[in-house]
Every structure is written in C-alpha cells, then in structure tokens.
UniProtKB/TrEMBL annotation:
InterPro entries: ABC1_TM_dom (IPR011527), ABC1_TM_sf (IPR036640), ABC_transporter_C-like (IPR050173)
Alphabetic keyword roster: ATP-binding, Membrane, Nucleotide-binding, Transmembrane, Transmembrane helix, Transport
ABC transmembrane type-1 domain boundaries: 1-115
GO molecular function, one term: ABC-type transporter activity
PROSITE patterns linked to this entry: ABC_TM1F (PS50929)
Protein name, per record: ABC transmembrane type-1 domain-containing protein
Annotated source species: Diacronema lutheri
Keyword presence, Oxidoreductase: no
C-alpha cells in the first residue's frame, strides 16, 4: 500500500512537472522576439524542446524513484548498523564527506561533458 502511494505521488509529481515545463516553454517561445527565431533554426528549437520534455517525462521520474528507493534503503541500513554498533557513526561521517566531495567532482565533469555533447 505504501509502495502504491509512493509510485502514485511520483507519477503525479512527474505529470505536474511535465505540464509546468510545457507551459513555461510555450510561454517563453511565444514571448521571444522575432530576432531569436531568425538566429536559431526551427529544427534546433524543436529538438531541444522535445528532448527537454522527454527528459522530464521519462528520465527524471524514473531517476527520482530509484534515488529515493536507494536513499531510504541506505538510511535504514545505517540506522540498523549504528543501533547495533554505535562506534560506526564515527567512521560513517568521514565516508559521507568523501562521497559528497566525489559526487561534486563527478557532477561538474558530467555537466561539462553534456555541454560538449550538446554542441556537437
């Protein structure tokens, strides 16, 4: 029952995000000056808009569901471990700092790689 509620809330949240993106995108395109359309080919605008919409519709909701599931499993595991062996909390704090720093480094690299991919 809890899984059904979680999946339903994720689906409804994804639907709301998708509708909001479509509304904002349409509003931005309709309010853009004519020089914007002369500078950017229609095909490129359409490709970018449909890719962004697809990412919100499919990729974002799926990744959010997986991230939440893994995060709750990790949190439950850490609570069980720390309740059994309290001294492991001392070891977990430096590990969390290490993983956050590693994630930040990877995230910056990933943004640059995606930027390169978008240019080509």
């Amino acid at each position: 029952c809890l899984t059904l509620a979680a999946q339903l809330s994720l689906a409804l949240g994804g639907l709301r995000a998708s509708a909001d993106l479509a509304r904002r995108l349409s509003s931005a395109l309709l309010s853009a000056p004519l020089s914007f359309f002369h500078a950017n080919p229609t095909g490129r605008l359409l490709n970018v808009a449909t890719k962004d919409q697809r990412d919100v519709d499919q990729v974002l909701v799926t990744n959010l569901a997986i991230t939440l599931m893994i995060s709750f499993n990790l949190l439950a595991t850490l609570v069980v471990i720390m309740s059994s062996l309290w001294w492991t909390a001392i070891l977990i704090v430096p590990l969390i700092v290490f993983f956050v720093r590693t994630r930040n480094t990877y995230q910056r690299s990933l943004i640059e790689i995606k930027r390169w991919g978008a240019v080509t």
